[in-house]
Amino acid sequence: MVRVTGPYDLEAVRSEWIGRKTDVVPGRYPVEYDSIRRHCHMVEDTNPLFLDPEYGRQSSHGAVIAPPVMTRYFAGAGVWPPSTDNQVSLLLSIPTRGERNINLNTEWEYLLPAKVGDHLASQTEVTDIYEKSIKLDPRSVWVVTETRITNQDGELVAVGTNTLCTHRTPEQVEAEEGERPL
Q: What's the rounded Cα separation, in Å, for the pair 42 and 37?
C-alpha cells in the first residue's frame, strides 16, 4: 500500500480504484495428476476422484479432478522461477493512510472442478475500499478484492474474496490525529 501523508480523500481513492483489475494471468502449469497425488498423500486424502484415474474417467467429471484447495495453486505462477505477481502490485499501489497490513478474511467459492489437463488463469479486481475504526487506528482503510479463476474455455472455476485492513502505527495516529489510540 502507498502511504498517504496529509489529507486523505477516501471518495477520490474509491472512484479511482474500485473496479480496477489486474491482467488475466495464466497459471504456469496445467492441472496435473502427480501434483494432485503428492498433495493428497501429504494430507492423507484418499478420495478416489483425486487419486484414481480409472475412477475419475468413469465419474461424471470424466477425469481426475484437483482438490478445490489446489485450484489457486494451478492458477498461479508457482514458486520457481520467481514471477511478478500483478495482484500484489495492484494492492501495493492503492493509496491508504497506513502501511501496516492485516489480511482479515479470505473466502472461496468453487463452482467447477479443475480437471487434469485444464489450464487455469486468474484475474483480481478491487471491489470495495472503505474506512472502519479498529483499536489501533480510528480511521483504518479496508480493501476488498475479488479473484476469479477460469479454465481454458473461459468458464468460471472459482471466485475468491479477500479483505485487507491497512492501518497506521499508534505514533502515526497520534501525530496525525492528535490523540493516542486505545
A: 9
